[in-house]
Amino acid sequence: MTMIDASSARLGDGPQAGGTEFVKTNFEVYVCKQTFKFNAAHFVAYRGFREALHGHNYFISVRLLGSRTISKDGYLIDFGDVKKAVIRTCKRLNERVICPMHSDVIDITVGDDTVSMVCEDGAKFLFPKADCVFLPIVHATTEEMSIYLWSAVLGDIDQSHLVRRGIHTMEVTVAEAPGQESVFRLGLPKSVDAGNITLDVRAFIEDGQIIPKPCEAGPSYEEKKLDEQEKEEAKQPKLTPLSTLPVKACNGDDGCGACKNALSEQLQKLALAINTNQLCLPTSDTGKTVSIEDLQAAIDKQNSQ
């Protein structure tokens, strides 16, 4: 997408054609393709905090801001130049574990074949070296990755080529999920002799803005089991004690419907409780006959739990 910005223009600033004055313009090129993506694993860690290891499908887009005019070939810049640079950058990061090499809370040791990461909370990770990518960042956030990617894309496009084309600013957007993205915009050095630049991510991070907090330990095995047991018990039906049932007026008729319904309800609950082993009743081994009092006591005991 190419954009022309004339929002803050005034007459007389632009070129003339046929005696007509144009307002001041700024050309922008915005490139966003489905191929501008990479899949990577990471976790964010700073003093007192660490995320669990997880991954994202990252997407990148690039915006280039130019001058009032475009080149004689009609381009601000060829889309193809931008696409090639971004795809090369994404390929280097695809299906990798992101290692923030300037982290102050992760001890990263790069061996011949493996990479060890030891975190402040004692967590240890060991990855094949070929599966890792080593980035000059402090935290594996989209904000810091957008700074790194700005440098990486600029290096692949060739800064001097952009300057010759009249491009003065580049913007890189990194999205880790729909609606979750970071944007980094910075002006290019004006001199074509400045060479490709690499930004120091640490220069964009303030000191002391994070208040350290203790790492929160997850629930223990015993706590998890107790929680599961309580949830399971909550699913079991509670029985209503016979003594608490509402007493309805009865005319003494043996066929009273209210009495039959109340009895049927209690029998259903008792059967369910016995079949699901909720009630502990005397067995035939004791030689004792089960009485109404036994059933009532068993129901009361179950309801008190």
From TrEMBL:
Give the cofactors, semicolon-separated.
Zn(2+)
Q: Which GO terms describe its biological process?
A: tetrahydrobiopterin biosynthetic process
**Keyword annotations from UniProtKB, A to Z:** Lyase, Metal-binding, Tetrahydrobiopterin biosynthesis, Zinc
Q: Which domain of life is it from?
A: Eukaryota
Q: Gene3D superfamilies, from UniProt? A: 6-pyruvoyl tetrahydropterin synthase/QueD
| Region: Disordered, residue numbers | 216-240
Q: Which InterPro entries match?
A: 6-PTP_synth/QueD, 6-PTP_synth/QueD_sf
Q: Pfam families this protein is in? A: PTPS
Q: Name one GO molecular function term.
A: 6-pyruvoyltetrahydropterin synthase activity
Q: Which family does it belong to?
A: Belongs to the PTPS family.
The protein's name is: 6-pyruvoyltetrahydropterin synthase
